[in-house]
Amino acid sequence: MDKVVQEFTEKVSSSVYKGTFVKLVLGKRVLDNQELNKIVVRYVKLQEKPNLQFVYKYVRQDVTKNFSVEDGVRQLETIIGNNFLSVVLFTTKEDWELKYNNKHVPKIYKQKPSFTEAADGQHDQVKKRLIETKDNVYLKSLGITDQKGEVIPSMNAKFRQVEKFVEIIDSLAGSLKDIPLVKIADMGCGKGYLTFAVYDYLTNNLDMHVDMQGVETQDSLVKFCNNTAQKALFGGLKFCCSNINDFKAEKLDMLIALHACDTATDDAIYMGLKSEAKVIIVAPCCHRQIRNQMKITENNVLFPALKYGILLERQAELITDSLRALILTKHGYKTKVFEFVEYDNTSKNLIITAEKGEELPKEEQDKIQAQINAIKNKFGIKYHYLEKLIENPIDQSWRILNAQCYKAD
Ligand SMILES: C[S@@+](CC[C@H](N)C(=O)[O-])C[C@H]1O[C@@H](n2cnc3c(N)ncnc32)[C@H](O)[C@@H]1O
After folding, report:
1. Is the pLDDT confidence value at 354 over 50?
2. Could you tell me which residues come within 8 angstroms of residue 373 by beta carbon, excluding any fewer than 6 positions away?
3. Is there an atom of ligand 1 within 6 Å of 218 CB?
4. Is 0.90 surpassed by the pTM of this model?
5. Which residue segment(s) compose the domain that 289 sits in?
6. Are residue 222 and residue 342 in the same domain, yes or no?
């Protein structure tokens, strides 16, 4: 896919999950015999699930089709540039327009927002949460809700991250629906906020049969979570006290990790690759491993910028996650990177989603490896921890056993 189109569709996903999406309009139809003039895409909630509603505006009639967010985005990726040469994404923060020039080269333009109110997708319904908070045993046990079943204000940010993560899983769950028992692991699960919510949503809302494990090094948290799972009667959910790398998973269908510290995110991705998970979703945490390695010499054009500590830190984050996304792509995963919550919820607001596809031809893999090498060379990076895990499957005596966060969330 064209990288400008990908950048644009990532803005669409991001605005939907962040709640800033207003609508999207595809115009400038490529001339053919069809009588379709334009497509308007809106956000609607159907049976509490986020959907993208495509209204196809033909000369004589409108045709409406609803898609999950991910399917809708896939739909856009096939239409943009092939059937329509202009697309405008209206969000409450800004308007984004993607236009093709005469040589069929796409470019994105940013404008001030035309609208200030986001689409909430539920015109005539009382707003209901994706995760029901009333009488919810595990949310109360985890300290997210109070006696009345309301989210405790100090837990709002974490609960929003979890809800958004679940929304993203929902839109990627299509490939898991026909699996009789879906195997899932949540790596570096901590107190299990995400683990419980995902298990609850998949089993109780999507009626899936799930065998789920939360993996965590802190024994006290593991004990607490196993007790809570029993109280909530979640029979298919277990927590185990283990380092991610030692976790024995023959096969996983989905691997998730929310803010697994530093290289623990790489351990998680590696486990997903090793077990050939169909879906890998990680929201990375801190990024020390690459930052500690970066050597910016005075002849690097970015030297004057990266002598400032905070800019070096941001650059390290960017490079770490870019390399993760490239490594996943090289392994045949259809990979996306976008913001899943606002920056003021958490500065760690990037999410990497990867869906297993076909193995790439060798030349394609080599091309991606050359891109990875070029990035590493530019910043004096000897190795990316994830690459090293993949390259040394037998001897991993060098690996970091307990990654720690160096910044509070
Ligand atoms: C920042 S917390 C996030 C917890 C949880 N996912 C959440 O979002 O609430 C990271 C957790 O990862 C755990 N952790 C770090 N390295 C790990 C490893 N290699 N294996 C298993 N757990 C790890 C830590 O003990 C900690 O509980």
Report:
1. yes
2. none
3. yes
4. no
5. 137-391
6. yes
